[in-house]
Structures are given as structure tokens and as C-alpha cells.
Amino acid sequence: MSIRYRLDSIQTSYDSRTVLDIGRLTLRAGRLYILTGANGAGKSTLLSHLALLTAPTSGEIVFEGETVHWSNSALQRQRRDVTLVHQSPYLFTGSVAANVAYGLKLRGVHGDGLKQRVEEALALVGLAGFGHRRSRELSGGEAQRVALARALALETKVLLLDEPLANVDRNTSDLLENIISALPARGTTVVMTTHDPEHLERLKGERIHLTAGRLAAPQSFSNTSVEEGEIQPCRLSPKPATSFSIA
Amino acid sequence: MDFFSESLKTALELITSRDPDVVSAVTVSVVVSLWSTLFASLAGVPAGVAVAVTEFTGKRAVVTLLNTLMALPTVVVGLFVYSLISRQGPLGGFGILFTPWAMVVGQTLLAIPIVANLTMSAIKGADPRIVPTALTLGAGPFESIRRLVVEMRFGIMAAVIAGFGRVIAEVGVAMMLGGNIRGYTRTMTTAIAMETGKGEFALGLALGLILMTVALMINMALNALQQR
């Protein structure tokens, strides 16, 4: 599997407080990564870097073999291969269909092709026929699903999900889990955060655990594919490891 | 009290009979104010958005200046523009003093700080997720700001309406730069000031009623926008 991201010596600080300190992290195509950690562990900061929205204070991110230059015009092209669904997503005013169509239009999709992809994406999240509804009239769970449909419609190489299952009922959660777990087979790299141990058990993903901004050795977790040799240094280290390759 | 009720009765007759002086003053007021608001919006909305979304050295000073300019006395603007467009002024060659366009220039300067400031407030009060959401869906920097403006359009429209409210009710600029020429640059406010001074209370009251109606409509529009 090809490498999507390589993060080297990433450090991010806010007001001289280091919130993220990662020596090395590699993410591959067609994998599902589950990002865990306590509140304030740096999960959202890491997702923001992976979404190419914010630059780390220092260090290098290589995306699809190309170093990310944060003030470069190439950044927008690179960003179009990634999308992020926030825990509490923002839906633009207007119809559900207009929301789902937004990113597609920016990519030059118009006409019947646009309509078809919007309908397919909505059907995928169980919202077929919702296109004409106003975004402000939706429930929290429906809004979450529209945001996911909006992201899925783009068919990006990377899908980042910040607690996508936190505010939805069990049926919606099951539906979203099925959608998410099917994506890696299409070559999509999925990185999702969760606090719920049940999701960790059910989703066939590889775990990235953050402790105080540092990568930590996975705790007991049946789905991890990280090899024993890779986590050994973390166990021996008196402080959390800063280097960790999930490959 | 009889004086007031008689004047009110005459005022209503002037309005219903479409008295030429009333119609002219209302027309000049509305047309000049619309042009001023249009120009003030073209300058003030982008300026307000730019100040709100960018960080630069001296931003605090710019915000303070905009706040101060919101309370700019109309006669000061009138004096400033007069010095520019009078025959001896650097722009005197255009010959626009005592024309509706002179009033447009002055009222535009008066409305720009209001439109810019209220636009800036609307943008700063926007949901902080709007721009990141647009960026993660593939928008570039310009498109993400355009999306922000679209999302905050009601707040920006409220800023524009507030600017219109400011200029249609002002008297200093209209008097100093327009010259209060009957049927040409006489507005509702300058007519009210002049007619009341002459003791023609009824015409002043008729125009005052229309002006109050316009103000009421502006406030209703603002309330409607703020509730969206």
C-alpha cells in the first residue's frame, strides 16, 4: 500500500505550550486508523494538520510524496484530496442537496453528473429524498449524516472524521460504522477519532493513541496491526514515545 | 393643540394630493440615499470583511478609527467635501458642488464607516466553523471568504440598511453640499429644516411623517433580518 502521509518531527505549540509532539508517523492508503486519547491529548490538532488546515509549529508533513508547503499555491490542490467531517459539523444555509453539491461544484462537477452524485451520496447515508430539505431543519443525527454524505460525495483519498459517532443514535451509528469500515477497500485512508471502546472493538482499524500530544504504544486492542517490534521502544521509554510508525 | 391638529390635517392632504414639493423632496432624498448607500456598500462591505478576516499590524487602531468615524458629525463631512469640491478646491473642476452628486459624495463618506463597522461585527460574530468547512470541501482562500459572506448575508444586509438609515435622515451634508435648491437638491430633511424656519409647519410635518415612515420601514427590515 502506498504512503499517504509521512509526518516528521511534528511539534505544535499554543502560547508556548506544546500540544503535539510526534517524531514520525506514517499513514498508508486504504487503511482505517482510529485515533484515541483523552480530551486535550492533541487529536483535533493532529486531524487539523492531516486536513492540511493548520501548519505545525515545526516539522514536515509529506502528503502523497509531496512536502506540504503551507504558503504555496499547491496547498489547495493537495487539500482537495482530503476532507474532514467535524464532530459538530456546520451545514451551509440552503438545501441539503446544495450542501452536498458544494464541494463537487468546486471540483467542476455540474449538470446531471452532479445531481447523480448528490443523490448517490445521500442514499448511501440513508437520506434518499432529503435533497430538498433545508439544512437548518435537520436533527443532529441527520445533520451528521448530511455532513458525511457531503464528504463521501467528493471521493477524496483521505477522509478524516472527528467523533462521527458521538451524537447519533444506535441505528445511525451502525449505518455510519458500516459505511466507514467499507471505505478502505476503495483505497480511501480513513482517520477517525472516538472515545467509545465499543467502536474500537467493532471497527477493523489500526489504533493511533495520543497521550499529552505524544504517540503512545497501543494498549490492549485486538484490531491493532502494529507489530511488536515497533511498540517496544515505547514500553521501555520512561516518557511517551515521540516516534511511531503505523505502517 | 389646534395648531398641531390643523398642521397634521394639512400635512396629510399634502401627502395624499401628491404635492409637487413633497414628491420632489422625497424623490431626491430616496434617490441620493440609494446611490450613497450603493457606493458606501461597495467600499464598506469589502473593507469590513477584510478587517474582520485578516490580521495585520495596526488592526486595533483601524477598528478604533472605524468606531470613531461612525459618530462622525455630518457637518464635518460636509465641510471636508466642500473644501475639496468648491471652486477653489482640488476637485473643483468637476463642478459638482450644489448638485445631487455632491450630496452623494458626502453621504457616501458618512455611510462607509457604518457599513464597514457593522459588516465587520457581523463577520466577527460568524460561526467559526464556516471557513474551515469550506476549506475542507475544497474551497480556496477567496472562495472560503465568499462563502463566509454568503452565510452572513443577513448581517451584512442589516449593515447596508443601517447605512441607508443614516444617510436618509441626515441634514448637514445635504444642506452644505446640495444647497437646498428647490426641485433639485432639496431633500426631506433640508425641506423640514427650512419650512419649519419659515413657519410652514404643515409641509415640514408632512415630510416628517414620510421620513418617520421610512425610518419605521428600515427598522422593520432590520428586525426581520436580525431574526433570520
Overview in brief:
Chain A has 247 residues and is of the alpha/beta class. Chain A contains 8 helices and 10 strands. In chain A, 43% of the residues are buried.
Structure description:
Chain B: One of its GO terms (cellular component) is plasma membrane. The complex is a heterodimer of chains A (247) and B (228). In chain A, 32% of the residues lie in helices and 24% in strands. Chain A has helices at 43-50, 74-79, 96-106, 111-124, 140-152, 170-182, 197-202, 228-236, and strands at 3-14, 17-28, 32-37, 58-63, 66-67, 82-85, 158-161, 189-193, 206-211, 214-216. The radius of gyration of chain B is 20 Å and the shape is globular. Chain A binds chain B through residues 51, 53, 76, 79-80, 82-84, 86, 88-90, 92-93, 102-103, 106-107, 150-151, 154, and chain B through 127, 129-130, 132-141, 143, 147, 150-151.
Q: Which properties best describe this structure?
A:
heterodimer, A: 247 residues, alpha/beta, six-stranded mixed beta sheet, four-stranded antiparallel beta sheet, 8 helices, globular, B: 228 residues, mainly alpha, MetI-like fold, transport (chain B), transmembrane helix (chain B), MetI-like (chain B), transmembrane (chain B), membrane (chain B)
The total of helices of chain B stands at 11
Strand content of chain B: under 5%
Based on helices, strands and strand pairing, what is the structural class of chain A? alpha/beta
Q: Biggest interface and its residues per chain?
A: A-B, 21 and 17 residues
Cα shape of chain B: globular
Q: Name the overall outline of chain A.
A: globular
Report the radius of gyration of chain B as a whole number of Å: 20 Å
- Per DSSP, the total helix count of chain A is 8
Number of strands of chain B: 0
Q: Percent helix among the residues of chain B?
A: over 70%
Mean pLDDT of chain A, nearest integer? 86
Largest sheet of chain B: none
The radius of gyration over CA of chain A amounts to 18 Å
Largest sheet of chain A: 6 strands, mixed
- Which structural class do the helices and strands of chain B define? mainly alpha
Main β-sheet, spatial strand arrangement of chain A: 6-7-8-3-9-10
The assigned CATH architecture of chain B is Orthogonal Bundle
Kindly state the percentage of residues in helix of chain A. 25-40%
The sequence of SSEs of chain A as H and E is EEEHEEHEHHHEHEHEEH
- CATH C-level class of chain B is Mainly Alpha
For the record, give the distance between the C-alpha atoms at the N and C termini of chain B, rounded to a whole number: 43 Å
GO molecular function, one term (chain A): ATP hydrolysis activity
Keywords (chain A): ATP-binding, Nucleotide-binding, Transport
Pfam family, one (chain A): ABC_tran
InterPro entries (chain A): AAA+_ATPase, ABC_SmlMolc_Importer, ABC_transporter-like_ATP-bd, ABC_transporter-like_CS, ABC_transpr_CbiO/EcfA_su, P-loop_NTPase
